[in-house]
Amino acid sequence: MEDDEQQKKADLLQELVLRLVTQNPQTPNLDPNSPAFLEKLRYAFRILNSRLTPSVAPDATAIAESLKRRLATQGKSSDALAFADLYTKFASKTGPGSVNNKWALVYLLKIVSDDRKSAINGLDSSFLLPNLGFGDGFLRGGEAKKKDWENGVLLVSQDPENSWDEKEKAFRDYAVVVKKENEVNEEVLVRDVLYACQGIDGKYVKFNSEIDGYAIQDSVKVPRATRVMVRMLSELGWLFRKVKTFITESMDRFPAEEVGTVGQAFCAALQDELSVYYKLLAVLDARAMNPIPFVSEFASSDNYLTLRRLSLWFAEPMVKMRLMAVLVDKCKVLRGGAMAGAIHLHAQHGDWLVHDFMMNLLRCVCSPLFEMVRSWVLEGELEDTFGEFFVVGQPVKVDLLWREGYKLHPAMLPSFISPSLAQRILRTGKSINFLRVCCDDHGWADAASEAAAASGTTTRRGGLGYGETDALEHLVTEAAKRIDKHLLDVLYKRYKFKEHCLAIKRYLLLGQGDFVQYLMDIVGPKLSEPANNISSFELAGFLEAAIRASNAQYDDRDMLDRLRVKMMPHGSGDRGWDVFSLEYEARVPLDTVFTESVLSKYLRVFNFLWKLKRVEHALIGIWKTMKPNCITSNSFVKLQTSVKLQLLSALRRCQVLWNEMNHFVTNFQYYIMFEVLEVSWSNFSKEMEAAKDLDDLLAAHEKYLNAIVGKSLLGEQSQTIRESLFVLFELILRFRSHADRLYEGIYELQIRSKESGREKNKSEEPGSWISEGRKGLTQRAGEFLQSMSKDMDSIAKEYTSSLDGFLSLLPLQQSVDLKFLFFRLDFTEFYSRLHSKG
């Protein structure tokens, strides 16, 4: 159907040209098969097949209005109305038989009208179709005009006197002029340009180091336009030389670390592009073998090359080669992920040619990098011989494997991988290595296979590539979820992490009350001795006895074996109380959580709690001593009234001071045990259950331990109030020693007073109370009680002052719980009123 339509158009065009030619008086009977007619027909086909378009907007209505106005201004109103009516009918007609391109037809009528007007005014119509050979005789009512157009454009005249011989002569003259201006013909220059594009010097086009590029030698005579065009085309050779040099130097240095596998892949991708470029040059070289036809000659084929044609052939390769040269300059000092990221930045381009080229290049360049990611995420293997991956491993001890064994290298992180995704990639590989090295577990392999199946990828090499960021993120998410869950299950079930944390709470944080009380009772007398006289083996025996005598004996034996006595470094004046402590041995893999720094914090908390327990134990001991002495003190009926009053006053003072100290210690211990330890443990248990990976577990434990340290006044910001608290502890221990002396003296006084009545006639050793009689006994008792009262008053005064300072510091603390501790200690506002009076 289309062939019939084309044939119909060709027949109509032939008929039109035949009519125009036969109307020419010079060729009234021209044969349609003659070469002259066929040449004119080809010229007409060229005109119709040209892509020249009018410089006006395609608006049929506007052109019709222009024609109607022209008719009206010429006084042809009836013609204008008739034209308007005809155009209305013409524009409204649609369907079969109608004209589709109405604007083109109306525009043709306008051009014909303008042509007729020009012919009437004397313009030669042969200028419109000069090759059709119309002469001056064809002009209607016009005379022969001059051979040159009045607007200054010189055309070849179509007068009868101008024969084809004269045209040939003009073309020959043009050839002579061209030969004089060009010492080298264009075919040679084309071939030299092709050589230059391969980095090879030609006969006339050579590399000029002064201008850093290929150019025609200055001694060769060529027009400036030709020289400029050759220089522009030869830029491709300069770019090729830069890229080729980079590839050669990089491959010569491989396997040096500065090249790496990503750099090698980059060179391979560039080499592939150069292979395509070589194929193009081979095709162009074959075309360059065909001679270039002269202007007046008819080319037998279109397979020849000129400099202008070469510029069209070089358009796409020039874009690619410039881009490759830019990448070469950018990546000279880069490697690994940094190189891939730099190349990725050039892929964000709106030109589809550049975008597709960069995508193909990046698929090749990023292949080693994505293989490293796959191997790390699914196998835990760090295949990075040249230090190109954004995950870096370093040799460390087993207990530091998780925290310091692997780190991110930000300089090697490509821009198409987000920092959050990189962190997940790092953690997933770390989890696999932690399971394999620290936990001696191989169940992660099944979890990795399940993750690959769930994400729709494969565990084999080449399963991931550039442009598949969503697939990569899905794989990492699935792998991290399964492997982290398996890691936590191993820690909780196989290594009993929760049970170990509870054991530390019971023994290091003194949560096992019966064990702590029994240990305090049996080890207290020994710890009162100088530290140099205490054996750690003896203390270990006391520890084992406390375990067997308490409910601690029913705990897991493995955990009890980890509990040990530790003697801290001490000096010559230290007592056993100052150096005694307990420690908990953390083994692989639990030592990742219970590191040396973590255990040192636990040791600080234990020492603090042990000191608090010692103070509580001292107050309990005072109460045990105080109770029977208060009852028997009423039997001193034979003493003088003044001595009796001193005794009762001392006992009352001791009782009141003990009540104050017991009130403080009881409330402070309640705060530590319940508000600090139990609340922190409850929060830690919840966070431990909600943890999704080992990092979450470590963060939860660190938060738990820091909360205990901070609320227990062991932080750096609580140094002042901690020192004030320790002063109170020392005063309570001093009070214990003075109270013991007081009640020992009362007990001795009771015994001596009884013996003095039974043995008053017996002689006693000089210096004893009995030997001096009742009077001496009363005097010595009065002096003793007076001295003890002074000491008690001194301790009471110091205690009141220190307690006031401690209470004044509590509201200044950041922890809200410490502010509530102040309310518990002063719920009757006794100390507040006392402070206001003072």
TrEMBL record:
Cellular compartments annotated: Cytoplasm, Cytoskeleton
Pfam families: GCP_C_terminal, GCP_N_terminal
Keywords: Cytoplasm, Cytoskeleton, Microtubule
Gamma tubulin complex component C-terminal domain boundaries: 499-831
Keyword Cytoplasm: yes
Keyword hit for Cytoplasm: yes
Domain of life: Eukaryota
InterPro entries: GCP, GCP_C, GCP_C_sf, GCP_N
Ranges of residues in domain Gamma tubulin complex component protein N-terminal: 190-493
Sequence similarity: Belongs to the TUBGCP family.
Descriptive protein name: Gamma-tubulin complex component 3-like
Species whose genome carries this gene: Camelina sativa
Organism lineage string: Eukaryota, Viridiplantae, Streptophyta, Embryophyta, Tracheophyta
Name of the encoding gene: LOC104768867
